Amino acid sequence: MHILGLLLAAVVGAGFWYWRLHAAKTAVDDVVDQAGRLHGAYKRRKFRNKAQASTLSGIEDPAIGATVLFVSLVEAGGPFGPDHEKRIDGWLREVADYASPVEALTFARWASREVVDGNDVVRRMLPLFNNALSPSEKDDLLEFAGNLASSAGEPEPAQKDMLRRLRSGLVVPS
Fold first, then answer.
1. What is the rounded CA–CA span in Å between residue 150 and residue 160?
2. pLDDT value for 153
């Protein structure tokens, strides 16, 4: 009888340790899987930021940069509609002297969809605006952006933040 008790204790002990090691292996596998997911998310975010930067860094024309800014500003507050397109088209024709602003608007709509945060557009365009625009052109840009953001009423918080960053980032010499 003692031998049977020892044999039963050995089988139960072996089963306990097998279950315990199996649970530990599962926990380790879960941790490794989670670490892999985090690493993948980090790499995707890094790639997305590079893609955004390359989209905006290729812009050398301040009118195109302003168009991307205007579209991003509108989309930060809601959907981009035909009224917005007509107003930006008019600005491109009158202020930027574009004969056919269709290409600029098409590119701006594409570029604004590639960029996740409108504040990135402001940050990337500020050096271009500061280097290429005169003080009166900067004032016109700010005025039109403000009018565009408030065209449907009170601007959304994201639009206010973009306008604040734009206003504070434009360097106007005294």
1. 9
2. 76
3-state secondary structure the chain: CHHHHHHHHHHHHHHHHHHHHHHHHHHHHHHHHHHHHHHHHHHHHHHHHHHHHHHHHCCCCHHHHHHHHHHHHHHHHCCCCHHHHHHHHHHHHHCCCCCCCHHHHHHHHHHHHHCCCHHHHHHHHHHHHHHHCCHHHHHHHHHHHHHHHCCCCCCCHHHHHHHHHHHHHCCCCC
Domain positions in the chain are 1-43, 58-169
Q: Tell me what pLDDT residue 46 has.
A: 82
Distances (CA, A) of 58 to 16, 62, 101, 125: 63, 11, 18, 11
Mean pLDDT per 10-residue segment, the chain (174 residues): 79 78 74 83 80 74 91 88 90 84 89 84 90 89 88 82 90 63
